[in-house]
Amino acid sequence: TTTAAAAAICTEGKCGICKRGGGGGGGSGSSSNTGSKSSNSSNSSNSDNNSLRSKILELVAIRKRNGIHARSKVVVKKATADVYAAVIDDRVVLKMGPGDWSPGASGVKLAGGKIQPALACSGFQFAVWELPSQEG
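-> structure tokens emitted (136 positions)
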């Protein structure tokens, strides 16, 4: 879970997960005999990697859209053994872990306490909310 969370905020391909199963071949490594598993599991693995990759791309888009960076202000709202929740730059809310938590039930609002965040992305044991779109 921690590795997936780190990959979710990686925008430079340094996490080791977003490169795995991503498009494009090449690279500096050998393409054969890189693992001991049989190729029978590769179809399932590729599907899992594509799903993970799509979630990572969604999270990167949220990060870019909201100007989140390495020095963004993080305010932890809950940190227990089963859930971690934080507000980032008063623009994004992140929840990780199997525990039950949501910004609405916790009274968390963004933009100086004025706006209820809207769900932007979710997956296995994580959810991200952001300021609602001003369109329409």
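Strands lie at 74-79, 84-88, 92-96, 118-123, 126-130.
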